[in-house]
Automatic annotation (TrEMBL):
Enzyme class of the recorded protein, top EC level: oxidoreductase
Source species of the chain: Streptomyces viridiviolaceus
Alphabetized SUPFAM superfamilies for the sequence: Ferredoxin reductase-like, C-terminal NADP-linked domain, Globin-like, Riboflavin synthase domain-like
Top-level taxon in the UniProt lineage: Bacteria
Keywords: Heme, Iron, Metal-binding, NAD, Oxygen transport, Transport
Annotated family: Belongs to the globin family. In the C-terminal section; belongs to the flavoprotein pyridine nucleotide cytochrome reductase family.
Domain Globin: 1-141
CDD domains documented for this protein: FHb-globin_2, flavohem_like_fad_nad_binding
Protein name: nitric oxide dioxygenase
Domain FAD-binding FR-type, chain residue ranges per copy: 153-262
């Protein structure tokens, strides 16, 4: 928790820091990359930097963490910290990098806020930073220990043993360790990072959910090509679609991610939109493989049936479970899905059992709407779990 002397200082300055946090994070990244261009080339997502999403995510996490320290001083925000730590571990972040971030972040704070950053203010926000950083370092150390990996040493080579076109914009890759050993175990819902060596010499990293159950000799990821809608084309997804074939080798991390299917026999809601179906497939596959009799309500929303990756597989897995239902919504169902509803998913219209645990994955507006519907229906917030592809712009806003 914050020290007694820092609480009133952070409380008094949080509105000013919060109002300027966007400028602070933008300047911070500029300073960081000027001093360490290799971080932008080989670690940070250049697309998210260009769109501003990474800056907004960092701003949200800092402001959200500081606010929680003030509002709930006796409770550490473990959900927020765990999500960030898993992402950091999947990137191979090391504890010494927090010192680099600290130096450039506080230089940006001083430059943006000027004379308002008195020694007292600097000391209080330094405490906020290191409370958050040291908590993350501790969680990440535990994740590395659980993975039996040295700090940051999460990468290994995997061979693509199968490539399959799932939709015009989604392709799946079956991966097998290049050293001949079985693939590492993971928990349904987790993801891996893929480090791609691009034509300009950069090594960009992206995360992809494991889209089949654990316990097999191979892994599977499904990659949607990012394109259009006014956004920059996804350089890694486009490279994987255009270049990677069976027999190629990829550099892949160990599995991480805190969206994990919990053990038990209680009812489940698996709600997804678009490529967010991938962690739900791993959960459904695991339930079917283990003979689970848990009640399952699966919800999926997509633009059209043709855009629904693993559509047949999802339906087959639902049929393989003794107490499972699938509800589909398409913006344009057409003749391929006469049983599907038209428009956006409406959780409020479903008959949901009491005591359910919900897992959500898809665009943030979709998850925000589903989560709101569930909360209004009395589902406790702690029973609702989610995964975001890319920077988590939801941190600190729930």
């Amino acid at each position: 928790m914050l020290s007694e002397q820092s609480v009133p200082v952070v409380r008094a300055t949080l509105p000013a820091v919060g109002a300027a946090i966007g400028d602070i994070t933008e300047l911070f990244y500029r300073k960081l990359f000027d001093a360490h261009p290799e971080l932008l080339r080989d670690l940070f997502n250049r697309g998210n930097q260009a769109s501003g999403e990474q800056q907004r995510a960092l701003a949200g996490s800092i402001a959200g963490f500081a606010g929680l320290l003030l509002e709930r001083p006796d409770v550490r925000p473990d959900a927020m910290l765990s999500r960030i730590a898993h992402k950091h571990a999947s990137l191979g972040i090391t504890s010494d990098q927090y010192k680099i971030v600290h130096r450039h972040l506080f230089a940006a704070i001083a430059e943006v806020l000027g004379d308002a950053v008195t020694p007292e203010v600097a000391a209080a926000w330094d405490e906020v930073y290191w409370l958050m950083a040291n908590a993350l370092i501790a969680i990440e150390a535990r994740l590395y220990q659980e993975a039996d990996a040295a700090e940051g040493d999460v990468w290994h080579r995997m061979e693509v043993v199968e490539r399959r076109e799932e939709t015009p914009d989604a392709v799946s890759f079956v991966l097998r360790p290049a050293d001949g050993r079985p693939a590492r175990p993971f928990r349904p819902g987790q993801y891996v990072s893929v480090r791609s060596e691009l034509p300009d010499g950069s090594r960009q990293i992206r995360q992809y959910s494991l889209s089949a159950a654990p316990g097999r000799p191979d892994w599977r990821i499904t990659v949607k090509r990012v394109q259009g809608d006014g956004q920059p084309e996804g350089e890694v997804s486009s490279w994987l679609h255009a270049r990677v074939r069976a027999g190629d080798l990829l550099t892949v991390s160990m599995p991480f991610g805190d969206l994990e299917l919990a053990d038990g026999d209680g009812p489940l809601l698996l709600a997804s939109a678009g490529i967010g179906v991938t962690p739900m497939l791993a959960m459904l596959d695991h339930l079917a493989a283990t003979g689970s009799a848990r009640p399952v309500t699966a919800v999926h929303a997509d633009r059209t049936p043709a855009d629904h990756a693993h559509r047949k597989e999802q339906r087959d897995l639902i049929r393989a479970l003794p107490d499972a239902r699938l509800h589909l919504w398409y913006e344009e169902p057409g003749d391929q899905a006469p049983q599907a509803s038209t428009g956006r998913a409406d959780i409020g219209a479903l008959d949901l059992p009491a005591g359910l645990t919900a897992y959500l994955c898809g665009p943030v507006p979709f998850m925000r709407a589903v989560r709101g519907d569930l909360l209004r229906r009395g589902v406790p917030a702690e029973a609702i779990h989610y995964e975001v592809f890319g920077p988590d712009l939801w941190l600190g806003q729930q």
